[in-house]
Structure formats: structure tokens, C-alpha cells
Amino acid sequence: MIEITGLRKTYRSRGREVRAVDGVDLTVGEGDVFGVLGQSGAGKSTLLRCVNMLERPDEGRITVGGVDLTSLNRKRLRLARHGIGMIHQHFALLSSRTVAGNIAFALEVTGEPRAARKARVSELIDLVGLSGREDAYPSQLSGGQKQRVGIARALAARPKVLLSDEATSALDPETTDSILRLLLDLNQRLGLTILLITHEMGVVKKICHSAAVMRDGKFVESGPVADLLHHQGSELAHGLFPLAARSSEPGATLIDVTASGEDADAPLTGLARRFDFRILEGSVETLAATRAGRWRLALTGDAAPQIEFLRSHGAQVEVVA
């Protein structure tokens, strides 16, 4: 659905060039929820703005739904953008318009007839859970309600792709969870492809099927979350399942074990039937795309056969000490 190759974008700041996006390749499959994770200044927002060509890249190709956006003239690009919705961190609502009016605005831009606009607005208000708030103004809404209006507006033209620019970073944890549940529900009900940027590991954990870690304009790792969990030294795995540092455990070998799938804890269960070890910390959690677990174990006796057993049963093992 989204295919990016060799993307580069450079800005000039205070007399020097800053490479905001540096040779990024990205593939987001149809119906996927893909998260780009990184700290401020990593290049996430520039990448997202390039996807809908609000920023024109210096190099590279961006294809959405089979259409090469980088090759389009201004008129054709404007039409192509109707198939790409976008939600913003700070909502970007029109303060002089009601909930219904803000959603209708997106349809006015596309030239939707008045009767069709009214029907579509009603449908969207129900879809995002704002029934009864049609006539409220943004100043009368909570942060979560404002973001629901933003989501409804982004979906007005029935896009197949939704871009999310830190959509939950201005919200409290409970409201964040409700918005993430809504996005995941929309993904599943509408077959919506979602590309989101975030600095919050919890967002990736809760709704992303695939993810990339971005730093200094580059992806340092990228792929399905379940696969990245099994990569040796994966930043994503360490971020999703942080384990406290332990320098030593007398008489034992310390290892970190990562496993995923419906039977994520099966390798440990099997190990417990054959060997003696202690679980120092860890957990099993349900991610958006899979069930996964990560543990720190203290192995007693000969560690080699225990490590081999875990690896033979699909677990990723890192020796800590």
C-alpha cells in the first residue's frame, strides 16, 4: 500500500545542511499498522509529511496505492491526497465550526454534494463514538473528543491510508488507550492502512503490527514486531520488555529470553521440566499482532544445553553474564 525507496530530505539551518531523512526505505502492507518510533529530531515528522507530499523529498520515490506521488503534478497530487487521511497531535480543528462542521469541511473540499455530506457526517460521528456531540464546538470538547473529531474528518473522503502524527502524545494515558483502541478497530473494520509516528513505546506495543526505530534520519531496525523481538540486540525488544540490569548472580549464568506466538511461554514451560533455573523478572503480554514474552533467567549448572533447548524451541537467547 505504501512503498518508499531511497527517501532523502535535507534542510538548510543556520548556514548548514541538516539531513532530516537519510536514505529511508519503507514498505507498509495493505491493512497493516506500522509505527515509526524515535525521539524528537529523529526525522519522523519529516518522513510522514513526505508520504503525503506536504514536504517534497530531495530524492527517492513514494508510492501509495500503486500511484507514484513524486511523479504527479500539483492538480493530480491534490486528487491523490483524497485517498490519504491525516490526524494531528494538536487536533487542528476549526474553532468556529461544530463537530459536524469540522467533519463536513473535509467533504466540502472534495466537492461532495450537500445531502451526501450530511449523511456521511452522521455516519462518521457514530463511527468514532461522538453521537450527541454533533453541535458542540471544539472549546466544549475534551482532548480525546477533539481527536475523535480529527479522526472522523481524516476518514471523511474514505481514504485507504491514514497517517498519524503523534496523535496521542497530548492525551492522558486513559484517553490514549481509548484512541488507540479506536484506531485498531478502524484498521480491522475498514481494512485501513495506518502509518503512525510516535516517541512512545506503548503505542507500538498496543496497536502496531510492524515498526521501525528511527535515529538521525535513518531506520536502525525495521520489520514485523514479532520478527524484531527475535533479533539479537533489538532496541525494540528491549524497549517493549525492559529488564533491569543485574551485574551478577553468584553461581549462575544470566540470560535474557524472548519468545512470541500463541504459546510464547512454551519454551520456559518445557525448560522447567528438564532443568533448574530461576526467573528473575519478565512477563508475557499481548501485543497488537502477537503474544510475546521476555524474561531474565538465572541458569544453574551447565548453561549450554539449557540455552540450546530454548533456541531449538524458537526462543531468542542473549547471554547477559
TrEMBL record:
<dbReference type="InterPro" id="IPR041701">
    <property type="entry name" value="MetN_ABC"/>
</dbReference>
<keyword id="KW-1003">Cell membrane</keyword>
<dbReference type="InterPro" id="IPR003439">
    <property type="entry name" value="ABC_transporter-like_ATP-bd"/>
</dbReference>
<keyword id="KW-0029">Amino-acid transport</keyword>
<keyword id="KW-0472">Membrane</keyword>
<keyword id="KW-1278">Translocase</keyword>
<keyword id="KW-0813">Transport</keyword>
<keyword id="KW-0067">ATP-binding</keyword>
<dbReference type="GO" id="GO:0005524">
    <property type="term" value="F:ATP binding"/>
</dbReference>
<dbReference type="InterPro" id="IPR018449">
    <property type="entry name" value="NIL_domain"/>
</dbReference>
<protein>
    <submittedName>
        <fullName>D-methionine transport system ATP-binding protein</fullName>
    </submittedName>
</protein>
<keyword id="KW-0547">Nucleotide-binding</keyword>
<dbReference type="InterPro" id="IPR050086">
    <property type="entry name" value="MetN_ABC_transporter-like"/>
</dbReference>
<dbReference type="Pfam" id="PF09383">
    <property type="entry name" value="NIL"/>
</dbReference>
<dbReference type="InterPro" id="IPR027417">
    <property type="entry name" value="P-loop_NTPase"/>
</dbReference>
<dbReference type="Pfam" id="PF00005">
    <property type="entry name" value="ABC_tran"/>
</dbReference>
<dbReference type="GO" id="GO:0006865">
    <property type="term" value="P:amino acid transport"/>
</dbReference>
<dbReference type="GO" id="GO:0016887">
    <property type="term" value="F:ATP hydrolysis activity"/>
</dbReference>
<dbReference type="InterPro" id="IPR017871">
    <property type="entry name" value="ABC_transporter-like_CS"/>
</dbReference>
<feature type="domain" description="ABC transporter">
    <location>
        <begin position="2"/>
        <end position="241"/>
    </location>
</feature>
<dbReference type="InterPro" id="IPR003593">
    <property type="entry name" value="AAA+_ATPase"/>
</dbReference>
